[in-house]
Amino acid sequence: xxxxxxxxxxxxxxxxxxxxxxxxxxxxxxxxxxxxxxxxxxxxxxxxxxxxxxxxxxxxxxxxxxxxxxxxxxxxxxxxxxxxxxxxxxxxxxxxxxxxxxxxxxxxxxxxxxxxxxxxxxxxxxxxxxxxxxxxxxxxxxxxxxxxxxxxxxxxxxxxxxxxxxxxxxxxxxxxxxxxxxxxxxxxxxxxxxxxxxxxxxxxxxxxxxxxxxxxxxxxxxxxxxxxxxxxxxxxxxxxxxxxxxxxxxxxxxxxxxxxxxxxxxxx
Length: 268
Hints:
alpha+beta
């Protein structure tokens, strides 16, 4: 046991260890799939572009079996034809695109002249991943360091990836650095949209925002991912994995182990 005199020091070590553990977790945060080696979909300069990609297998989306999908440079996938960029909810995005949508981060985005700005696709027999790397918002106030990286993964088969078990039909959104400006001083508004949708009545946004519209990127997970899984009623449920509480408990557990080991070392 800690003596009364050692308690303040112990709590100090514990607090420091929690910060270190949390920082360690944050370093490991990022994309579920390493996009290296993927096929280029969009490269600079790219703005308001859309093209069809093959998934390399069948994927069930709202009861529809698809083997290809359109990728938009504006941060979403769709089976429709509409190319969109102005602010709207996830339900409106589906309705206005004329098809089913998957939106890890829909916004008015652009690939700048940065050499590392790219949208790419990477497929295996088990999944297809689309990654938007270092894309910027169209706001004229944007600077070269204000860019975002994010990813959508469509699971074609039951898959173990990064120690997580995914089911065929699952959709996962993961995020790297999120720094682009979602405001647009021209006319287009100041929100971005996350979620999946079939039409104006059938959609799933975020765990905390039903229509998927956000005015800040802060709430998106920098550790783990958003999981969209069929709910058995023709729609999707959504959860952040792991949950924020689990992240804290993991950090706390690592911190406690660190303090315990230090105490034992000093005891000897």
